[in-house]
Amino acid sequence: MTSKTRKVAIVGVGFVGASCAYSLINQSICEEIVLIGRTPERAKAQALDLSHCMDFTHARTKVHTGDVTDCGDADIVVLCAGANPIPGGTRLDLLDSSHTIYRTLIPGIMNAGFNGIFVAAANPVDIVTYMVWKLSGLPRSRVIGTGTSIDSSRLKTLLSEYVPVDPRSVSGYVLGEHGESQFPAWSHVTIGGKPILDILRQHPQRFGHLKLDDIAEATRNAGWEILQGKGSTHYGIANAIASIVRSILNDDYKVMAVSAILEGEYKLNDVCLGVPAILTRQGVKELVELNLSPKERQLLAYSASVIQAAAAPLGLL
């Protein structure tokens, strides 16, 4: 019996890239990880440190360093290379530096013979994802960004503290930009299957203190709160990446809010933003087009316009 080794290449071995590798190893998601960084010594040290986890994990994952030529036979290339946002700015401020990195990196990966799936985590992730799609020439189904997956998780965690329930009993999505114009689609948020809007309406005395606008703002600002406290966000997004990678490799058909290229969905075109998508071995199998309220459709269209306006100077549209 033969089996194919599941191989993931991680480009960028800072906090996010290393934490992603750590999550992949501890969850036994793949058999091989190659770390690619601009500083070979740091990449080697990360690989060595991660390899010392194996005695304590359920399965062995081969971890080693490499370069873009090692991406040729990878199933998934995770893109983590990039700078952290600066407090007081926005993720969009990182666009120029990310463009400089990926306009040369992606052609190099494609020239190595890569024919798998890109998972982008670098900010501004929606524009980086769109950029990677344009530069790679791959079908839109095989270029995915982490998008609002982490924001949706933050929303569930915040709601679970107010209700209170296990965060995994909360279902719902943050849509749009992974940034300032994001918003929770409250019309589709449920707790134990019951719409949050019904809960608030039926139990005003019990949950009258729960202000949806405040929760939306706390969700949007959660990353900045972490950044100001310790300088980077990496554990949450690393697990989000791991979940996306696992869903792809295991052909899970799991629905997650990821950054995906829209071609007519939600009446939007030529833009990449956070929406629910079905993830399979082929990448994005299908985008889930929610029946949004009129206000939510306006918010999504506005978020798309913010992303497109920021991307326009790069000549990608």
UniProtKB/TrEMBL annotation:
What's its job?
Answer: Catalyzes the conversion of lactate to pyruvate.
| Catalytically driven reaction(s) | (S)-lactate + NAD(+) = pyruvate + NADH + H(+)
So what EC number does this one have? 1.1.1.27
Query: Where would one find coiled-coil regions in this protein?
Result: none
Q: Where does substrate bind?
A: 91, 123-126, 151-154, 233
Give residue ranges for domain Lactate/malate dehydrogenase C-terminal: 148-308
Q: What assembly does the database describe for this protein?
A: Homotetramer.
Tell me which residues make up the Lactate/malate dehydrogenase N-terminal domain.
7-145
Its family remark reads:
Belongs to the LDH/MDH superfamily. LDH family.
Can the keyword NAD be found in this entry's annotation?
yes
Record protein name field: L-lactate dehydrogenase
One Pfam family it belongs to: Ldh_1_C
Pathway it works in: Fermentation; pyruvate fermentation to lactate; (S)-lactate from pyruvate: step 1/1
Q: Which organism is it from?
A: Paenibacillus aurantiacus
Q: Where in the cell is it found?
A: Cytoplasm
Superkingdom per UniProt: Bacteria
Q: Which UniProt keywords apply?
A: Cytoplasm, NAD, Oxidoreductase
| InterPro entries according to UniProt | L-lactate/malate_DH, L-lactate_DH, Lactate/malate_DH_C, Lactate/malate_DH_N, Lactate_DH/Glyco_Ohase_4_C, NAD(P)-bd_dom_sf
Active-site residues are: 178 (proton acceptor)
Which positions are annotated as binding NAD(+)? 16, 42, 82-83, 104, 121-123, 146
